[in-house]
């Protein structure tokens, strides 16, 4: 993240809300362990502070994508149990062992390398096993379950967890969910007594049949919408305000921004924001005459983004604020309590995940709500 003077945008992360979201999901998943997925810099909120807040709330199991992310969680939360979803990088077993990281093994070569290291050191180092039940990404093929079982039984090795991942959990009634649930049941029947995990945020909310022994919420922890077509029950965690640099006049018939794809149809008041795609604002949120773009919240109203979003600047039509125009230096809310990250994402034709994980802009990061966490 680019250092700031504190005069630009302000990104506020409510750690108290993050903790409350974890506790709420932990109640829903009663009977199963509730992990915390903190990959991609904890969905843009900062892996160090987010991991500490989640641990203080009660989380003990964490999922990351890469070993580097795992080491960041280990530094923040020394007693965490950390699974690395990318699995075992070739030749990196010693690093995982030194950092007490558990690779989620997803191929026969990964399994063989990990087991060879266990034999070499005469120690059954823990790992997870990932089986692909229909998303065709990482994972052992279902046809490999017997081979995997035979190989570990020969050595007397048992994984810490067997997992899979749902392709359509955000659509609870999708037939794919039930198909994957059945396939996952056939997998875990071959590994009796081993904890199982299938549910992400949406799967956790879909029903207890998907919970098994561990659930793995990610986006819901950070206030994002997990299930399509339902009201989001999670507390907002992230608020982004960006500075208004200038208020300018626009005349009817003039164009706004690069490409001249927005022509003013009235005499307008325009606010120029110090924020653009270099800061994570997607160009798909640009507004043209043929397609509305995103909106920002200024002085109690949602104001439309007009013209093409550029690297550093975004133009907003504030004409409808009338005489209550903002002054340079005031902030415009890009998302937060008045416009959700999901509403903004919908306007850009994407999902809240993408906006949150794009939070690498030129703004200062402020953590609030720490007083709500246990000592």
TrEMBL record:
The keyword Transcription is annotated on this UniProt entry: no
Keyword terms, alphabetized: Isomerase, Pyridoxal phosphate
Domain of life: Bacteria
Reaction it catalyzes: L-alanine = D-alanine
Binding residue positions for substrate: 137, 311
Active site: 39 (proton acceptor), 258 (proton acceptor)
Cofactor names: pyridoxal 5'-phosphate
EC number: 5.1.1.1
InterPro entries in the cross-refs: Ala_racemase (IPR000821), Ala_racemase/Decarboxylase_C (IPR009006), Ala_racemase_C (IPR011079), Ala_racemase_N (IPR001608), PLP-binding_barrel (IPR029066)
All copies of domain Alanine racemase C-terminal, residue ranges: 237-368
UniProt GO BP: D-alanine biosynthetic process
Involved pathway(s): Amino-acid biosynthesis; D-alanine biosynthesis; D-alanine from L-alanine: step 1/1
Segments traversing the membrane: none
A single MF term (Gene Ontology): alanine racemase activity
Family: Belongs to the alanine racemase family.
Name of the featured protein: Alanine racemase
Species whose genome carries this gene: Devosia aurantiaca
